[in-house]
Amino acid sequence: MSMESKTHQLIQLYKKVKPFLGVISVQFGYAGLSIIGKFALNKGMSQYVFTVYRYAIATVVIAPFAFVLDRKKRLKLTFSVFAKIVMLALLGPVICQNLFYTGMKYTTATYARAIDNVLPAFAFSMAWILGLEKVNIRRWRCQAKVLGTIVTVGGALLMTLVKGPMLSLPWTNGNDHQEATGAANKQDVIKGSLMILAGSFCWSAFTNLQAITLKSYPTELSLTVLICLMSTLEGSILALAMEWGNLTAWSIHLDVKLLAAVYAGVVASGFSIYVHGQVMKEKGPVFVTAFNPLSTVLVAIIGSFFLYEAMYLGSVIGAIVIVAGIYMVLWGKSQDQPGSKSSGEKIAPTAQNMATTNERITTSNQEFMAINVTSIKSIDGAA
């Protein structure tokens, strides 16, 4: 096999795995944010101010890249696109993030991330309603997606309503664990769960609206900057209203609060929105959200080590049910890809396929002409 052929195969392999690498890296970023964000909230940082700083930093960091890389392909910002950007900022960064972090204050980082796994189910349902996801209930893949959605929601309800016995983990023993358990007694799991679920619903709407907006404004970096900028402005209005007269809420020093704001702005806001936009153009909103369970596993492991969070049997069983439901949806989604045996759809013609087809047609025509010439000569000879 020639070097050129090997290079071509590697490029094709990279194109196939690129969407998976993108969404998996985002989930690692979200897992880190859950831990660092919970540290900052435990230190008394306001979730409203945290959201403002987060998207302000994201805007400053991403804007230079968007200005340079998108200057030749940036489209005119129409009123319709601007209205969608305003709504995107309101749904995702402002409403969703504030609900999520408020819910995390009432629960734990692991619990909040686990409940947030209903996001793919909400995203699939909305995509179905909006026509972004095609569903034929007679096909196995569509039945898997619908059933997976129902199972996911059931798992979230199980985590919310069933607590069960606390699991004793060796590394959570000691004084720190006792402090965490004492704090857990002050938590309001039901209120926190409802806030996180409402936030997940809003983020699902954000994801689907982002997919729609990218069709009319397909410059991911510029769109990311505009969303972050509007999120900063809208979030500032909410933060000023909620923290009115409390100037200390805006103070920030060289501590975990600053680290959380910078990490959230660069990794979990600017980077994640940009990567999601790129993957979404190719795979759609359901694929992007289907990997959320990965961050749950990561947060559960890291949170039990560093935050000494107690784990309960009901939460573990609910998380397993959620993961099973999500991967039913993911399996059904994978069968939608061109070339899958159960897709029942025609494979879209590529340039290489078209070239091969044309070559075969040309060869067939040449053979047909040769046969015709031979036949004419034979007839002439016979005459």
Q: Catalogue the unreliable spans.
A: 174-186, 339-357, 359-383
H and E string = HHHHHHEHHHHHHEHH
From the helix content, strand content and strand pairing, which structural class follows? mainly alpha
* Strands, count: 2
Radius of gyration: 26 Å
What is the strand arrangement across the widest sheet?
A: 1-2
Distance between the termini: 54 Å
Q: Helix count?
A: 14
Characterize the quaternary organization of these chains: single chain
- Beta fraction: under 5%
Helix content: over 70%
Short structural summary:
Helices cover 77% and strands 1% of the residues. By secondary structure, the protein is mainly alpha-helical. The chain has a two-stranded antiparallel ribbon.
Note down, in words, how this protein is organized.
The longest helix is centred in the first third of the chain and has 40 residues, at about 5-40. The protein is mainly alpha-helical. The termini are far apart. Helix 2 (about 45-70) packs antiparallel against helix 9 (about 220-240) and helix 6 (about 140-160) runs antiparallel to helix 13 (about 315-335). A two-stranded antiparallel ribbon has the order 1-2. It is built from 14 helices and two strands; from the N terminus they run H-H-H-H-H-H-E-H-H-H-H-H-H-E-H-H. About 75% of the residues lie in helices and about 0% in strands. The protein has helices at about 5-40, 45-70, 80-105, 110-115, 120-130, 140-160, 175-185, 190-215, 220-240, 255-285, 285-290, 290-305, 315-335, 350-380, and strands at about 165, 310. Mean pLDDT is about 75; it is low at about 175-185, about 340-355 and about 360-383.
